[in-house]
Amino acid sequence: MSGTVDVSVAGFYSAIEKSAGLLDVTASREAVWPILTAFEDALPHAVIAFRVATNARHEGDFDARFTLPKEIDPYEVAVSKGLMAKTDHPIGSLLADLQQLCPIDSYGIDFGVTSGFKKIWVYFPAGEHETLERLTGLASMPRSLAQNLEFFTRHGLADKVDVIGIDYRSRTMNAYLRAPAECYERESVLTMHRELGLPSPSEQMFAFCEKAFGIYTTHNWDSPEIERISYGVKTENPMAYFARLGTKIEHFVQSVPYGVNDPKMVYAAVTSTGEEYYKLQSYYRWRSVSRLNAAYIAARDQENA
């Protein structure tokens, strides 16, 4: 079904309204329409996904995201179209620095349907991983990436970075990492959380991590600490992993009309305050081979090799 959806600006916006409505979220045309029109030419070829989170910070919003070809500079478009303001903060230089350092396959953007433009995703070419040693050489990178290099190396996470996510709204950066299988085992998960000073996961989350295909860490520019570590799982039945996701999200999972038979991505994390939460990503238009699904595809190909 997701291969035949309407990817015009009007069609995409209508799908956003309907999907957000399942969560009692009212999409803002003023926030969303300028984003869709700014990247209108890329929509016919994009992989498009919707995402909802269970934590209190994301209450009342609903995210959409789509891919862009490498020929489009999403930061330049976003600034020139007034989707966000140019900044002197190091985050404003990070994408340009990555473009100078790394080969790039494609990009993605993420926006809230009430809050507007949020993130840019940088996808490295399949099989051409970046290393943290190279990335930490960039002056615009958060210092916590370099200051925790020993942690990443010790757990086998330092040599295969698939994706960088730049969140301009929260001023954080995510590094999506290929991880050895032992990183998803209970003792390793517990050890990594303890080393980072994060609360121990619940039994539900330990079971979730056993099925994970990738890890990402979250960093900000104000602290030398790793802010969060998250785990991703691919599934066609996200409800199988949880006793409950919350009434509204359960309703969304059971009712969203797009990508019903397509894989879903679920991400789990524990905050520094001990709040355990999940992010569910459902596809408006799924394509089996895309860099939006970079970590899953890499893990799948490794399994099939």
TrEMBL record:
The UniProt record lists the keyword Transferase: yes
This protein's UniProt keywords: Prenyltransferase, Transferase
Coiled-coil annotated residue ranges, if any: none
Keyword Transferase: yes
Protein name (Swiss-Prot/TrEMBL): Prenyltransferase
An MF annotation (GO) of this entry: prenyltransferase activity
InterPro entries linked to this entry: ABBA, Prenyltransferase_CloQ, PrenylTrfase-like_sf
Lineage of source species: Bacteria, Bacillati, Actinomycetota, Actinomycetes, Kitasatosporales
The organism of origin for this protein: Streptomyces davaonensis (strain DSM 101723 / JCM 4913 / KCC S-0913 / 768)
Family: Belongs to the aromatic prenyltransferase family.
Listed Pfam families: PTase_Orf2
Source taxon at top rank: Bacteria
